[in-house]
Design a protein that fits this description.
Guanine nucleotide-binding protein subunit gamma, transducer, cell membrane, G-protein beta-subunit binding
């Protein structure tokens, strides 16, 4: 990126702005409502909410400590 001239950087920024202008924009209140509904719909399968079963937890501490060979 350092080897680009100021003109090249300006063209890249212009092209990015052209892409962004075409994006459909939504109101934040609508997005938040839809996001909350999606999160609540998947809460039963979400390990961050319900946790990991003890027998499937790869990070549980093993009894007996470490062994160095």
């Amino acid at each position: 990126m350092d080897e680009l001239t100021d003109v090249d950087k300006a063209k890249m920024e212009r092209d990015q702005k052209k892409i962004e202008v075409k994006l459909e924009r939504w109101m934040t209140s609508k997005c938040c409502t839809e996001f909350m509904e999606a999160v609540q719909a998947g809460v039963e399968e979400d390990t961050l909410v319900k946790g990991i079963a003890e027998d499937k937890n790869p990070f549980k501490e093993l009894k007996g400590g470490c062994v160095v060979c």
